[in-house]
Hints:
Oligomer: single chain
Strand content: 35-45%
Radius of gyration: 18 Å
Order of helices and strands: EEHHEEEEHHEEEEEEH
Amino acid sequence: xxxxxxxxxxxxxxxxxxxxxxxxxxxxxxxxxxxxxxxxxxxxxxxxxxxxxxxxxxxxxxxxxxxxxxxxxxxxxxxxxxxxxxxxxxxxxxxxxxxxxxxxxxxxxxxxxxxxxxxxxxxxxxxxxxxxxxxxxxxxxxxxxxxxxxxxxxxxxxxxxxxxxxxxxxxxxxxxxxxxxxxxxxxxxxxxxxxxxxxxxxxxxxxxxxxxxxxxxxxxxxxxxxxxxxxxxxxx
Length: 236
């Protein structure tokens, strides 16, 4: 399976090492968020890796909703339920939940299709910063804390009108940033395409905390650091 490099199975449980999570973020999602660097003090496993593993294990349903309820730290053991009906929850060995999901409609276990959709989605998702978030912050006159940038994945959902798919891709259809005090909620909407035909739609939401007044120079510094990390990794 294409996800094999990004997790380890120990005693029947799924373990995600920091190096594996970081590799997934950078090489599959093209996401260079420093929170996914193994050495970061607040390291967390990318939510999109949990999403990808869930689809690989349970299949792709016509309609799905994923809610991220907790951050997954270093070397956490993730428990995937063996059996469920219409909903499932991922927890660690202490029972702390990190994701819950619901599904309905037709289901496919075609791994080629699941991989194609997953790769299309996580690549789209991984480009939230700076391509989407910076214009939204500039428009609203706010920005994340440049010293401790924190953007948390909250949820994602999608629905297909058909499961007869062959050439799937995603296209941005709308964005919104709602600000309440020092907290912001980002909504990113997308269309699901099969070739040139729209076959569904979905959305992703994220929470930004510690907002303050927008400063172009400091935001540009964040962008420069992000792009430098990407360039350094790809040239290594």
